[in-house]
Amino acid sequence: MSAQTPIRFGILGCAEIARKVSRAITVAQNATLYAVGSRSIDKATAFAKANNFPANAKIYGSYDAVLDDPDVDAVYVPLPTSLHVKWAVLAAQKKKHILLEKPVALNVAEFDMIAEACESGGVQIMDGTMWMHHPRTAKMSEFLSDPNRFGQLRSIHTVFTFPSDPDFLKNDIRVNPDLDAHGALGDTGWYCIRGILWVSNFELPKTVIALRGPIFNEVGVILSCGASLHWEDGKVATFHCSFLSSLTMEITAVGTKGTLHVDGFVIPHQEKEACFSFASETGFDEFVTSWVPPPSQHIVTTDLPQEVLMVREFSRLVGTIKNGSKPEKKWPTLSRKTQIVLDAVKASIDKGFEPIDIKY
């Protein structure tokens, strides 16, 4: 990597996920923790101390103060989804590059406001979908794009569930309709939808239909749901996301010649190694008692965890913009497509599981 002055990050808010990303910024060689802002100076001070901020890091008692600091290059925004449009637009107007937690907005219209502000300000935006940056993801893409081993894509199935304790189900921002109105759909469902789109080379489906039987809490926030996605060429996909089931993170992609299976796709089982398997042109033995050949197992190792790789890539892009390049449009495009599908699932649930046609 070419030497560059580390990108100076300001963090807006002290959410739990910000601890993980703070560590990633510390480890990434081309980034540095420069400032943190909270609604309370005491909370910001405690957060900086607990997360090994440099001694000279700026501590602010408001989000505005971080955005007004001329030395902050980029901001990480782990705020509740309902606050994204306000603070991301403001950040872009102040010429701060934006690493934005997912879901990126309450709907695609809000995200379009954010993206427009980023384009006007000439700033990079990337969402916080960490697994996209793991080297395993690139390795799996090689298999999916191989017509001799995988063939034509026919179906995709993704799952992301985890069990929640009573405190989470009562107090977490992800179950509060004023903060994160999409609940499990916005949190775990975002990853399931991104996984489906990644397998389908980000070709949007034609139609989305929510599966019957979503579970809501008493204030109407989704705790568990699913959907089916349908493409004009006959490809289909399903996903299930939930706060009420055992920890599971899986993608299964089925082609005419091969099948990819990945367990722990959102967060690998181990920080420095991740696995997947694929079967290609597999059948049964003579007595139909075993697979021939069996699926092959693959392990991909990495010295840096995926969140560090995400921060490093984002910081690299910011560095190129400082040197005169244009922002990379790939990342806001992927965010927008994921949000479009998420919106369609929500619309289908709201309309009694009617099919929703996708319009890009």
From TrEMBL:
| Gfo/Idh/MocA-like oxidoreductase N-terminal domain mapped to chain residues | 7-126
Gene3D superfamilies in the cross-refs: Dihydrodipicolinate Reductase, domain 2, NAD(P)-binding Rossmann-like Domain
Which SUPFAM superfamilies does the record match to this protein? Glyceraldehyde-3-phosphate dehydrogenase-like, C-terminal domain, NAD(P)-binding Rossmann-fold domains
Every GFO/IDH/MocA-like oxidoreductase domain range: 148-260
Q: Which family does it belong to?
A: Belongs to the Gfo/Idh/MocA family.
Top-level taxonomic group? Eukaryota
Q: Give this protein's Gene Ontology molecular function annotations.
A: nucleotide binding
Among the Pfam families in the record, one is GFO_IDH_MocA_C3
Q: Which InterPro entries match?
A: Gfo/Idh/MocA-like_OxRdtase_N, GFO_IDH_MocA-like_dom, NAD(P)-bd_dom_sf
Family matches, as PANTHER family: GFO_IDH_MOCA-LIKE OXIDOREDUCTASE N-TERMINAL DOMAIN-CONTAINING PROTEIN (PTHR46368:SF19), PTHR46368
Official protein name in the record: Gfo/Idh/MocA-like oxidoreductase N-terminal domain-containing protein
